[in-house]
Amino acid sequence: MSAPLLEARGLACGYGGADVLRGVDLRLARGELAALLGPNGSGKTTLLMALAGLLPPRSGSVQLAGRDLRSLAPKERARRVSCVPQRLEAPEGFSVRELVRLGRFARTGLFGGYSQDDLDAAEAAMAETGCLDLAERLAAELSGGEYQRVLLARALCQGRELLLLDEPTSALDLARRVEALDLLARLNRAGSTTLLALHDLNLAALYCPRLIFLKAGRVALDGPTRDVFTEENLREIYGADIRVAPHPVTGAPQAHLVPGGAAAVLG
Amino acid sequence: MTAEAGETRAKGRPFWLALTAAASLASALVACGVGSFPSTPAETLRALMQAAGFTAGAPVDPSLAVVIVDIRLARVLLAWCAGAALSVAGCVFQGVLRNPLADAFTLGVSGGAAFGASLAIVSGLAGQAALTGDTALLPACALAGAMLALLLVLGLSRAGGGPLSGLRRETLVLAGIVVSTFLAALISLLKSLDEESVASIVFWIMGSFQGRGFEHLRLVWPYLLVGFGLALWRARELDLLALGETQARLLGLDAGRSRLWLLFAASLLSGAAVAVSGVIGFVGLVAPHLLRLVLGAGHRTLLPASALFGGLLVVWSDVAARTILPGGAELPVGVVTALIGGPFFCLLLARKPLRPLRPLRGALRGSGGGE
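YS: structure for the whole thing
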């Protein structure tokens, strides 16, 4: 097997005093589509920020195609890793088109001018994510869901080799959510390696062949969806009574809560 | 669908930029003709052409030509440069600090520059030539003062320990006011210690172009050139910084280094402007904010437009300063910019609620102040 595209080894990092991640080992092969799951505070966002090179490891390392992430120049890293963080507020005074084009910054030259390639990439990314009709609107005036699509467009405009997305569908309504995940699945078939932090267990099981569960800053479970998405595992990780049944159309395992189930497990 | 389709505002940009440039040039021309020996714009143009070695039309009265070229043109050029520098510096400060109220004046940077220059004169560091203000050391001391004041203000307002991007806008401006008031008091003190050296205290505190000419322009042009060059070179980075630390870094910007360069450029520009003109307020707030309403926030257009419009603003303020009082007395130009700028800024505030460029409230808060 060739070197993984992204590999974390014994990764520990955090913000203030205590470590949020406490020794994460993770390998992501080229072409994978994986979901990052886990209860609130388990370290999903922190792990994505560390994998994107924004949060320096306190110990351990992150390697991109065999090279330590810290050894890459910021622009080189940004050309290879596209990341959409969570809960971003839109800046004042920028149109959607301008904002999407900023995704090309890492490819601009000395004075930051855009080439025709850059402009075309921005239009293509907006077309794919259904943002073309928003192109002239001010980013600060969009709804949360619209802005989330714009950020996805900017990530695609930035690059498609490796996508790290933190709750990319949290503000989207149901139809848009399916659209966005269909798009990500399509991009994945076209070669993008994708790691998604998701809150929604069922959406993750429906779209991602591999699930990675974090708990208290460590990888608690990691494997093919059908193997790890079991009642026993979910109960253990989430501390609630959860039943698993196949999806009526695709057959993917889906989790169902049972009323009063938390007490049954915890008590 | 092509990349250019339907970009209404982007298409309007070259037009607005050209319009500002034309207005800026026309203002300079008209301003060269205003004064105790007035001339029409056509006469002024002829005198300027003559001085440049082109003869066209009837020759201009030689004494009028001297007034136009050696006195007024020098002064107008200097006013234009100072205005452009302050305006670009304001635009850069607002972008880097993500604070709509930031500018050389409100941050105390201008006060620092004025103090540095006064100190150089009083201490005799700048030598005998300093008595008239004509020394190459003066802008350097002003620059040092500007940078020290900036460090002091940033230090004061991040006493809580947050990263630059997390600076609260009120704290920043409050620290700026404290520092500039303190420095103004120190300048007054210097003045009272040594009546001879500091030509006029009002010059440093309210700004003036009285008696300023080509020799002053010669002192500061390298500073202005480097400052403008740096700011324009890194204009796109200002766009990224407007997105906040996290997004800027994710898109490949070395945010810490970029901010240092840009703050250095803005200090150069403010220091140079203050060294030759004293403290002129409000230019760096009014020009960029007005232009943002028309041009949007993209700094590759906004910075050159700010330079052109800021220059125009100060040229006209200077015209008002030297003509508004009867009997040839002059008003400090900073009084004029404050009189225009104050109410104008209130209008801007009322027209569009001045929302802060909101800092990211995400998970990364407090993690990556600078690399």
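YS: worth flagging: The two ends of chain B are 41 Å apart (CA to CA).
IM: good catch. Also Residues 1-8, 353-371 of chain B have pLDDT under 50 and may be disordered.
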